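User: I'm writing a short report section on ligand binding and want a predicted complex to refer to. Could you take this sequence and manganese (II) ion and write out the structure as tokens? A short remark afterwards would be nice.
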Amino acid sequence: MANLTALANELASGAVQVLDLTSPLHSETPILNLPPEFGQTATFKLEEISHYDEKGPAWYWNNFHTGEHTGTHFDAPNHWITGKDLDDVASVPASRLIGPAVVLDFVKEAQANPDFLLDVSHIEAWEKEHGAIPKGAWVLFRTGWSKFGDDPKAFANADENGPHTPGLTVEAADLLGTKRDVLGLGVETVGIDAGAGFSLSVPFPCHNMLMGNNKYGLTQLRNLDKLPAQGAIVIAAPLKIVGGSGSPCRVLALIQK
Ligand code: 23J
Ligand code: MN
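Assistant: Sure. The structure tokens for the complex follow:
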């Protein structure tokens, strides 16, 4: 109780700030493009119902059309075959939507090499410098990729060999999946796996090992540059889609000024 009163006071005074880590959701929001033999996700679309007009003289509202995995979104365990018997997005406990955030800053590496893969040695070196990844943490992989977020072509960074965006090695995905008690992995890119994730020795290792270990993904995050390496609290709020594999998601961070 005392802690929540202190938090309320610090929110009111600005000593604790609320950051929005969410990308705007609109018809140009980048989506994942899989090879053409696979089913494709949908872009976001608004469909107007009425706008203070003959269809509704005092009200404006829309229907919307979107993929579950469009824009800043949450990957639930049942999104991947390895987690097929685990939680759908509606069953994820609310207590597991909020946790301490750690921010692993690999902007320099991703800038030098868009195919940069975070490996176990990087995570261990980060922990040596900043302390252990706490229990129940959101692990946020900062790559600077969000600067391309308003340019779908640059965001996908694809050539004839497919997309080139940073991600994690199989071993690093296994570390987060099985050797750290985390909520999940948050990234700035279109999905939690590298652009070349399909061609790794375990295809899409982050999906495979996080979903398979009842952990979650958060994508297309912004403003990670405004977070400390340790000390922020992150709240993810996916829609409670019954049976859903994920959802567009508002992601907020609390930071101490
Ligand atoms: C389906 C297949 C491959 C991938 C993805 C979805 C995602 O990235 C996603 O949004 O979950 S890599
Ligand atoms: Mn997804």
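A remark for your report: Residues 69, 73, 75, 191, 217, 219, 246 surround manganese (II) ion (ligand 2) (CB under 6 Å). The domain at 16-24+68-256 is CATH 3.50.30.50 (Glucose Oxidase; domain 1).
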